[in-house]
């Protein structure tokens, strides 16, 4: 009798735990941190984090309207997103693999994002608190680099007058 009660309680706890995905497990389905050891000479930001992206899961979350986006400090922030409909319906029908989304941080509408999708490749720009953050696949390595615009090496990506 006592063992069956413990079994019932444990199975209930497991069911409750597996019924809800917390923020961390959602991001784990999409972003996997990667350490880099690049042998080739590439121009990279001075500070960055690199991730493998599960693009299929990311696309599914985009369709649901809430996506986890990694930040340069290692945190993952949830963004509410919607299709920004930048193309006419006819053009969108002709190029269904090209999409653009706009969004904002779930708990801070001042932090905004733009997500562009071509096939299963994404480019994300976040504007938040006077900072611009890029999340993109540099050099087609299959890895996404997350970095602040201010971490770009001098003379790259910035036009000065």
Model description:
The protein is of the alpha+beta class. The chain is 25% helix and 38% strand. It is built from four helices and nine strands, in the order ααββαββαβββββ. The chain has a nine-stranded antiparallel β-sheet. The longest helix is centred in the N-terminal third of the chain and has 18 residues. The chain is globular. 19% of the residues are buried. The N terminus is likely disordered.
Topology (elements, then pairings):
Elements (H helix, E strand, L loop, with lengths): L1 H18 L3 H6 L2 E4 L14 E5 L1 H10 L1 E5 L5 E8 L5 H6 L3 E8 L2 E11 L2 E8 L2 E7 L6 E5 L13
Antiparallel strand pairs: 1-2, 2-9, 3-4, 4-5, 5-6, 6-7, 7-8, 8-9
Quick synopsis:
With 161 residues, the protein is of the alpha+beta class.
Please name the defining characteristics of this protein:
161 residues; alpha+beta; nine-stranded antiparallel β-sheet; 9 strands; disordered N terminus
Counted by DSSP, the helix tally is 4
- Percentage of residues in helical conformation: 10-25%
Q: How many strand units?
A: 9
Biggest beta sheet summary: 9 strands, antiparallel
| Proportion in β-strands | 35-45%
**Pattern of helices and strands:** HHEEHEEHEEEEE
Look at the structure and give the mean pLDDT. 80
Query: What is the terminal separation in angstroms?
Result: 80 Å
């Amino acid at each position: 009798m006592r063992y069956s009660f413990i079994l019932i309680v444990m199975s209930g706890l497991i069911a409750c735990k597996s019924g809800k995905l917390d923020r961390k497990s959602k991001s784990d389905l999409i972003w996997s941190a990667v350490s880099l050891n690049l042998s080739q000479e590439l121009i990279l930001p001075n500070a960055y984090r690199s991730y493998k992206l599960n693009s299929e899961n990311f696309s599914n979350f985009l369709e649901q309207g809430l996506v986890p986006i990694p930040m340069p400090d290692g945190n993952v922030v949830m963004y509410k997103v919607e299709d920004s409909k930048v193309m006419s319906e006819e053009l969108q029908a002709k190029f269904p693999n090209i999409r653009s989304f706009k969004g904002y941080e779930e708990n801070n509408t001042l932090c905004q994002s733009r997500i562009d999708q071509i096939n299963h490749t994404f480019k994300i720009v976040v504007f938040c608190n006077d900072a611009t953050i890029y999340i993109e696949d540099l050099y087609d390595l299959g890895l996404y680099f997350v970095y602040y615009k201010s971490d770009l090496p001098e003379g790259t990506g910035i036009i000065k007058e």
